[in-house]
């Protein structure tokens, strides 16, 4: 490829919004020459590489906007520490069929068992697959919605929690809600019903949600919509955080 042709291709690629192609055209042509590629194979190489770069860029941007507390994956989850948890159930969720169906997933169990880790890992997988995601604790969501309602911007703020394909709601049940606050949660759940997926974590059983939301009738209405299409996984094992803390104490004791 002549220098003139290379410069022309780089200029055209930049105008088409393909900066990666503009930077790597010489590398592509070198690989094509070495492999003695035909025209169609070369075109397939360029388009495939550009798509991969664009997907990776979208993935990284999606993670930046997601508010996820970390980007842990299921490969980092120690299933051996939770022998009562069937890994197949979690890996079935990781196929994202429930997201395709606009259904929900609920992870229940005591603090520290890895509910948030799994929820985040599912969200990361969904983001990788092209879905928009957003993470919030229940308390943060309620606080933001209350502030927006006071400022007359509730409809606009609701969009934050309604637009994503997957909404992760963490720590349901750690703080009881007043009825007005529970009604804001109901608005999110009901408006997302069969329109987008929710992944939630809770340290309370569903039978305790009446206490969490301060109203049995409202809690029932929330659960009715949430559980109609929902995969539920209970994790009733030891705490990861306590395990790590005990190991740290043992190390400190040995040093002392």
TrEMBL record:
Keyword Nucleotide-binding recorded: yes
Residue span, AAA+ ATPase domain: 101-234
InterPro entries on file: AAA+_ATPase, DNAC/IstB-like, IstB, IstB_ATP-bd, P-loop_NTPase
A Pfam family assignment: IstB_IS21
Keywords, ordered alphabetically: ATP-binding, Nucleotide-binding
Family, similarity comment: Belongs to the IS21/IS1162 putative ATP-binding protein family.
Record protein name field: IS21-like element helper ATPase IstB
Source organism of the structure: Streptomyces flavofungini
């Amino acid at each position: 490829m002549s220098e003139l042709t290379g410069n022309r291709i780089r200029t055209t690629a930049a105008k088409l919004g393909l900066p990666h192609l503009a930077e790597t055209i010489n590398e592509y042509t070198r690989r094509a020459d070495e492999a003695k590629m035909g025209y169609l194979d070369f075109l397939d190489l360029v388009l495939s590489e550009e798509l991969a770069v664009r997907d990776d860029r979208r993935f990284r941007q999606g993670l930046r906007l997601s508010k996820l507390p970390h980007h842990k994956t299921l490969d980092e989850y120690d299933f051996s520490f939770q022998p009562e948890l069937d890994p197949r159930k979690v890996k079935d969720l990781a196929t994202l069929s429930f997201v395709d169906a606009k259904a929900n997933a609920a992870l229940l169990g005591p603090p520290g068992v890895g509910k948030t880790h799994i929820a985040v890992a599912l969200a990361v997988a969904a983001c990788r697959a092209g879905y928009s995601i957003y993470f919030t604790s229940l308390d943060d969501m309620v606080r933001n919605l209350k502030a927006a309602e006071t400022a007359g911007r509730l409809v606009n703020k609701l969009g934050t929690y309604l637009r994503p394909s997957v909404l992760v709601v963490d720590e349901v049940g750690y703080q009881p809600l007043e009825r007005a606050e529970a009604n804001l949660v109901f608005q999110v759940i009901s408006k997302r019903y069969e329109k987008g997926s929710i992944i939630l974590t809770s340290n309370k059983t569903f039978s305790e949600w009446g206490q969490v939301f301060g109203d049995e009738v409202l809690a029932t209405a929330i659960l009715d919509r949430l559980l109609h299409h929902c995969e539920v996984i209970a994790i009733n094992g030891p705490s990861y955080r306590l395990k790590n803390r005990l190991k740290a104490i043992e190390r400190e004791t040995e040093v002392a």
